[in-house]
Amino acid sequence: MSGKTATTTGSTVVLLAFAAFFSGAALRVCDSLLPRLAHDFSVTPGVAGQVVIGFSVAYGLMQLVFGPLGDRYGKTRLMCIAMFGCAVGATASALAPNLALLSAARIAWGMAAAGVIPLAMAWIGDNVPYQERQATLARFLTGTLSGMTAGQLAGGLFADSVLGWRGAFFTLALGFACVASLLLMRVPHVPVAPRADGSAHPAFIAQLRAVLAVPWARVVLVSVLAEGIFLLGPMSFLPSYLHQRHGLSLSAASAVLALYAVGGLVYAFTARRIVATLGERRMALCGGLLMGASYCVLWLSPVWLFVAPLALAALALGFGTYLFHNTLQTHATQMAPAMRGTSVALFSFCLFAGQAVGVTASGWTIDHIGYPPMLVAAALATPLAGWGFAAALRRRAQASAGT
User: Alpha carbon 53 to chain centroid distance?
Assistant: First the structure.
């Protein structure tokens, strides 16, 4: 890249990180609000979890629309439309009079949110060389993770305040509107990767089939599906777990779990050195082990345990997650370079479809059996996922060396 192009690309990544900030907040804000929603609507936390499930399902399904559209018509303008849609969805959620309408509004919000982070990742894949991409994605990730931290904290603070969940959603609506306006003004200056005319692209289903026909793409997609089920699903109920088991206020529980995103930020700021030191295979393996160990601490922690070990577990969970996830994410941008938007869309679809399955299973489990089985499943499955992807990377490297 020329100096001017590199500068423009760098400033665009910063702007996309701000968009990802509010998207990250939207993804995690309801975790800490579930006990307040359960109280306000007189339902169990498992039933209240439908506001998370609906968002995740809609988010995942709409990836399959935004991805191919981004490949055909350009990614930045679609991201603007998506951000304004998020502002509308957040406002509708804040105004919902009952749980059914709130769930419907969250579905609409999730549909719009599907066009932000994955298209931004695909844009980075289009404009940043592969050797620089993992570090660039890590910088972009700081926006998502900061938003997750803010969303988790804000959810708990709003849940304990008189403003409640409505105040949280109105605040996010304002943020989405502001960032969408800034992005819209920036669109004419954003670099656009060369692409063929829209008519030259294969049909929608053909694009999906073309990506799924790649064996390595299937490995990456199955791995991220497992991450969604066994990591993101149980995570949605961790604030409720700490609130019930350890008697923490929702604000305090949210503050502890916000360290998950801080752990991710630690990874993001050290990614270049970590990639050079560990390599992708050991990153996936260590990430899985750290996730499993963190869930073990949360599961085995006695009621009288001080907050510090719980905080360290949350920090390690975040660091381990992004050792694993950013490795998957980088490979997602390279599964099918000619249809990168579709590839990343399928990746995100699998992640959030997995989350929807995980939230559903976790909600049923805690309502009928309790929290321990949910935590045990996560403690066992996440190291297996890391080991499985590390083994696949080793086989792939051996096959490449043999050719």
Answer: 14
Largest CA distance in the chain: 64
**Overall pTM > 0.90:** no
| Spatial contact of 358 and 232, defined as CB atoms under 8 Å apart | yes
Q: Residue 258 is which amino acid?
A: A
Q: Which of 211-215, 248-252, 390-394 has the lowest mean pLDDT?
A: 248-252
The share of the chain scoring above pLDDT 90, in percent, equals 28
Give the pLDDT score at 198.
45
Structure tokens belonging to residue 351: 């992640």
Q: Which domains are seen in the chain, by residue range?
A: 3-186+205-394 (1.20.1250.20)
Place of tokens 């997602």: 332
DSSP H or E run through 36: helix 3-41
Distance of alpha carbon 281 from alpha carbon 66, whole angstroms? 31
Most confident region among 74-83, 189-198, 373-382 by mean pLDDT: 373-382
The structure tokens listed for 95 are: 């105004």
Average the pLDDT over 209-215 and give the result. 86
CB 4 within 8 A of CB 191: no
Give the other-Cβ count within 10 Å of 384's Cβ.
Answer: 13
The answer to whether the CB of 345 falls within 8 A of the CB of 66 is: yes
Instruction: Give yes or no for a contact between 148 and 23, defined as CB atoms under 8 angstroms apart.
Output: no
Q: How far is CA 267 from the centre of its chain?
A: 15
Measure the CA–CA gap between 353 and 24, rounded to whole angstroms.
17
CA distance readout (Å), 383 to 68, 287, 324, 362: 33, 8, 10, 18
312 vs 255: which has the higher pLDDT:
312
What is the Cα–Cα distance from 339 to 211, expressed in whole angstroms? Answer: 8
> Tell me: the pLDDT tens digits for 293-306?
999 998 888 765 66
pLDDT tens, residue by residue, 327-380: 998 888 788 777 777 787 788 888 878 887 898 899 889 888 999 999 999 999
E strand or H helix at 45? helix 45-48
3-class secondary structure, 137: helix
Identity of the residue numbered 129: P
- The token pair at 243 is 């609130």
Tell me the C-alpha to C-alpha distance, in Å, between residue 134 and each of 1, 300, 385: 17, 35, 20
